[in-house]
Specification:
single chain, alpha+beta, Immunoglobulin-like, Chondroitinase Ac, Chain A, domain 3, 8-stranded mixed beta sheet, 27% strand, Cell_Envelope_Struct_Comp
Length: 545
């Protein structure tokens, strides 16, 4: 039986907040609100959701009106699959935004959802059902029902949306309106980096091959401090708010699609390395046509669900980008999160991607056990290459050009090349990488406007460039002093300009030296460079967690 506050005000504190203590991080995601509607004529409210703790658990609701007064309190028990619902009539007549607080067992931070109530003369409120939208395809897109957002402990907002099957019976779609996005942004709290994250979780229990979401073009063609995360059973994709140019995006809606894809056409050994692993496709549509968009300066983050077999190592899992001709390109920054069960990578374009497993080795690295794992891992990721199909030549020295190429590739750095060194010419295989490094301040040049690409790189040059690259990528600031180098007997040989970088990398464990020596002026070997780059990538991965 539903009760008004005046009947049960004395038990609100007991029912709503006497819950077992738990951190905010643990509380996140315990309740998913899937529907919140209000009839503008009858004032009847319907709220549905899922308790992630499962069936048979108490769920308590407290509704506060726009004036801050409690309008409604009740409690129910979650049924099969954790589902629950509340149906009630607003006690008061206050117009505006109502806030519903939800409490469940084993959580001390109530989750919230808001809904608007307006009378007939003001045009209705959110939750009345919404009007149909168009998704830019021959399929009729799912109706644009008002979206309900929950504020999560990290400041992001999340909406769980039931995606409806379209006429093709293979695509589950949903539409988000400009009003929905504005409401989400007003509720979200920016991170310390200034980013507001909006999460759309699309659900459908009919196992569709694809998921699609229609979004207002403005949310993807303006503010770099907005991040739109789309979660589906096929994968999760984070879309930066500045990924599209306004002139390309236009007005209205843009549609993002993620789904299963065919492996073929594919060349060489790729088919064997992929096997039965996931193959997905990502694309954008505008007015029914696929968009070709360069995302070089606003890359997207993609996560694909994948369960490792007992014989697979995380470092030998990679992601391949497949083009229409069947060529495969390895994406260097691929990681596997055992906790989430996700393969994660960054990319600067839409298209087909597949998870692959490759164990790469060389015949001549057996005498370098300290570098073997690094060489094999970086070779698998496509960051370094052998000098032949079977040899790596670990003792060979590394040129300045080759090192910059590896560094830019490993960190997936991009910049508009506007200026170039006098001794680096178009057509050189390292032209773009060196240009990017110059633009980002990673390299300063030698003897005026020259780079000396063919010169062998010294260990301290390698460290300085890496420190600058990590800063340019926004990954970490590498800072240190001569005091961090006292354990090395040859610390005095480190050039003044390199002390901060060498010391900072040493203090972070990225540079470990050779016993009591750091050998700053020695030329780096291919084995040393691989080990150094491997530690950099491990530091990058650790900083992202």
């Amino acid at each position: 039986m539903k009760k008004k506050l005046r009947w049960i005000v004395s038990i609100v504190g007991t029912v709503m907040f006497m819950l077992v203590g738990m951190s905010m991080a643990q509380a996140q995601g315990r309740i998913d609100i899937t529907k919140a509607t209000v009839d503008k004529t009858t004032k009847k409210v319907m709220i549905e959701g899922t308790n992630q703790n499962g069936a048979g658990k108490y769920v308590t609701i407290k509704v506060v009106d726009p004036k801050g007064e409690i309008d409604y309190v009740d409690q129910t028990t979650s049924t099969g699959e954790g589902k629950f619902s509340f149906a009630f009539t607003l006690a008061g007549s206050a117009k505006g935004t109502y806030t519903a607080y939800f409490g469940v067992e084993d959580i001390d931070v109530p989750q919230t959802v808001t809904f608007d109530y307006k009378d007939e003369t003001t045009g209705g409120g959110t939750g009345g059902g919404g009007s149909p939208g168009t998704g830019g395809t021959s399929n009729s897109t799912a109706p644009a029902n008002p979206v309900v957002f929950q504020l999560l402990p990290d400041g992001s907002v999340k909406a769980v949306i039931k995606a409806e099957l379209e006429k093709d019976s293979s695509t589950a779609a949903a539409v988000v309106t400009d009003t929905d996005v504005k409401g989400a942004l007003s509720k979200a709290i920016a991170s310390k980096e200034g980013i507001k994250r909006i999460i759309f979780e699309l659900t459908n229990n009919q196992n569709p091959h694809k998921y699609a979401i229609g979004l207002p073009t403005t949310v993807l063609s303006g503010d770099a401090n907005i991040l739109v995360e789309v979660r589906t059973a096929k994968g999760t994709v984070s879309l930066p708010g500045n990924m599209l140019k306004p002139e390309d995006a236009g007005k209205g809606q843009i549609r993002f699609v993620i789904g299963d894809a065919a492996l073929d056409p594919v060349k060489g050994e790729t088919k064997n390395s992929v096997g039965g692993r996931p193959v997905i496709e990502l694309y954008l549509e505008k007015d029914g046509k696929r968009m070709t968009q360069d995302l070089k300066f606003a890359p997207i983050l993609v996560k694909i669900p994948y369960v490792l077999s007992t014989k697979e190592l995380t470092e030998e899992i990679k992601v391949l980008s497949l083009n229409t001709q069947g060529d495969a390109v390895t994406l260097p920054q691929t990681t596997y999160d055992k906790t989430e069960g996700m393969v994660q990578f960054k990319t600067d374009h839409m298209g087909r991607y597949t998870v692959a497993y490759v164990k790469k080795t060389f015949e001549d690295i057996g005498k370098y056990p300290w570098a073997q794992r690094a060489i094999e891992t970086l070779s698998t990721k496509g960051i370094i290459q052998g000098t032949s199909a079977t040899n790596y030549s670990p003792a060979n020295k590394v040129t300045r050009a080759d090192y910059i190429l590896m560094l830019i590739r490993a960190l997936q750095l991009n910049a508009q090349v506007e200026d170039q060194f006098a001794d680096v010419r178009k057509g050189d295989y390292y032209y773009e990488a060196v240009g990017i490094a110059k633009k980002l301040g990673i390299v300063k040049g030698v003897e005026g406007n020259t780079f000396q690409p063919k010169a062998e790189i010294t260990r301290q040059e390698m460290m300085v460039m890496a420190a600058r690259a990590l800063k340019a990528a926004g990954i970490m600031d590498v800072e240190g002093t001569s005091a961090d180098l006292t354990r090395y007997k040859d610390a005095g040989k480190v050039s003044n300009y390199a002390v901060e970088s060498v010391a900072g990398l040493s203090s972070k464990g990225i540079v470990q030296g050779d016993g009591n020596y750091i050998q700053p002026l020695a030329n780096a070997t291919r084995a040393e460079t691989a080990t150094f780059m491997y530690r950099i990538l491990n530091a990058v991965e650790a900083s992202a967690q």
